[in-house]
Amino acid sequence: MKILTVSSANMDLSMRVKLAPEKGQTLTGDSYKYVPGGKGANSATAVAKLGGKSVFCAALGNDSNGKALMQIYESTGIDTSYILTSDNLPTGLAAVTVEDDGSNRIVIFSGANAALSAEHAIAAAKEAKPDAVFCHFEIPYKTVVELSKYCHEANIPMFIDAGPADSTLELSELAPITVFSPNETETETFTGVMPVDDESCVLAVKKLMEKVKAEYYVLKLGARGVAVYDGSKLSIIPTYPVKVVDTTSAGDSFTAAMTLEYMRTKDIIHACRYGNAVASVTVSRAGAGESIPTKDELDEFIRAMKITI
Q: Active-site residue 267, yes or no?
């Protein structure tokens, strides 16, 4: 199954801290390192590690970070044929603080991600001939909108992980897609409703339905799992108990895994259970793309936890 991810690529400065500093406060951190990140790169990595054919359409700077990331993607088995190199903009950067409880705070500098045009994305989709297209909102919104129109006309399933959220985005500009998947805070940004229980999940989805047309709406609820709405019924798919080390890339790995498994099986509930298992392994490890499990590691986790997917 070939998944074309059209999205962001960053180098992450990942910093371990006991607590994030308050305004005007200086604290000493525990450790730091540079690791591959970016929502798009995390998702393309997940597809490759889980046995899918992963094609990545993104933009990097012509700098040391861009060269290092390209080598990592290629070694992971990602098709990098549609990655642009910008001479004018640096590779995107994310400054990530990870606290002792595994929660994170992230500041993103878009850099070359801003150079990913709709024309290039559509050309990649035409040439790569993917089974599905996967996007986030870390690239120009116009690129996502125009790509959604192309995918709708070409009958290519499109999956959108709706982060980062911006209340000024006109979601109604998107063509009908297969899955629209925001997390809790993104859902609140788009709808004004925080999905804290079944009732608020349904209310939030109905508000989303007024803005964007999708076959399924999948709300990522953190430790509570995900809520799936198919137009008539809400289903809550719980997550699996693990010790949380770092939540960075959990949502990206979930949605990418869900996309891949849905395209394999056409069963959204099964796909979300599969995605939850992938995200559970991911949060039990430190880092972004490097924390995502391979297919063999996921199979071992499923056996050890006695999970029925």
A: no
> Which residues, in sequence order, are bridge partners of residue 12?
35, 94
3-state SS assignment for residue 22:
coil
What's the first-to-final CA gap in the chain, in angstroms?
Answer: 19
pLDDT tens for residues 184-209?
999 999 999 999 999 999 999 999 99
Mean pLDDT, the chain, integer: 94
**Residues in contact with 12: Cβ distance below 8 Å, sequence separation at least 6, in sequence order:** 34, 35, 36, 37, 38, 93, 94, 95, 96, 248, 288
Q: What CA–CA distance (Å, rounded) separates 26 from 89? A: 31
How is domain 2-20+30-305 classified at the CATH fold level? UDP-N-acetylmuramoyl-L-alanine:D-glutamate ligase (3.40.1190)
Q: Measure Cα distances from 224 to 237, 241, 276 in Å.
A: 8, 10, 10
Confidence tier at 265 by pLDDT (50, 70, 90) = very high
pTM here is: 0.91
**Would you say 69 and 89 are in contact if contact means Cβ atoms under 8 Å apart?**
no
Q: Which of 196, 221, 194, 191 is nearest to 206 (CA)?
A: 191
Kindly tell me the burial class for residue 95, based on how many C-beta atoms sit within 10 Å of its own C-beta (0-12, 13-18, 19 or more).
middle
Domain map (residue ranges) of the chain: 2-20+30-305
Catalytic residue among 230, 252, 296, 299: 252
Would you say 219 and 195 are in contact if contact means Cβ atoms under 8 Å apart?
yes
Tens of pLDDT along 81-103? Answer: 999 999 999 999 989 888 888 78
Given this model, what pLDDT does residue 99 score? Answer: 87
The residue assigned the tokens 């549609």 is 82
Q: At residue 120, what are phi and psi to the nearest 5 degrees?
A: -70, -40
CB atoms within 10 A of CB 120: 19
Q: Residue 107, Cβ neighbours under 10 Å: how many?
A: 10
The string of pLDDT tens digits covering residues 23-60 is 888 888 889 989 888 999 999 999 999 999 999 999 99
